[in-house]
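INTERNAL AUDIT FORM
Audit reference: QA-55
Scope: verify that the stored structure record matches its stored sequence.
Auditor: D.O.
Record contents follow.
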Amino acid sequence: MNAGWPAELSDGPTALRPIRLRDQRAWREVNQRNRDWLRPWEATIPPAPPGHLPGHRPTYRQMVRHLRAEAQAGRMLPFVVEHEGRLVGQLTVAGISWGSMCSGHIGYWVDRSVAGRGVIPTAVALAVDHCFGAVGLHRIEVCIRPENAPSRRVVEKLGFREEGVRPRYLHIDGAWRDHLVYALTVEEVPEGLLARWRRAAPGASQK
């Protein structure tokens, strides 16, 4: 089992906690209400190769069971994002590799009603500090479509380095899309990413 899982993390009104089967109603309400806003940035299933059955999106219960099994195996940290006690999004640390790499990557989405209020930068900072501390990772990546300006602002505010482009990296919104790679290593934030975020935007974690 992953030494950093399960975990509940918080700063002011923003919190991360493990995703649960009983979150289904709240998760679906937020996700469906934001469908049009999220669709351009969400992963989709590519067409099946000739002779193969087409893939299908998992149900909520299938998704949660898979995420929690991966967490137990030390390959993933699946959180929901809460703001003022209400579920407002999801953040997952995935692709965790050990050995000589000790790396993972973060993906997230958030309710449009709280976008721009410091919720996701705070959530990402909490997750990165947890990964570098309790979990013991060395490097965290965030891969973002170049067109996704709001998501790029999140990592730029936090001081992630832009490392370049991964052409046709993920199947998003029905096609293979280029992604920009942003990264941080533990040596770059010796004081912690949450402390950096607080300095860069005083009071942001309280908004």
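Auditor finding: record pair retrieved intact. The helical segments are 24-33, 35-38, 60-72, 119-135, 149-158, 193-200.
Action required: none
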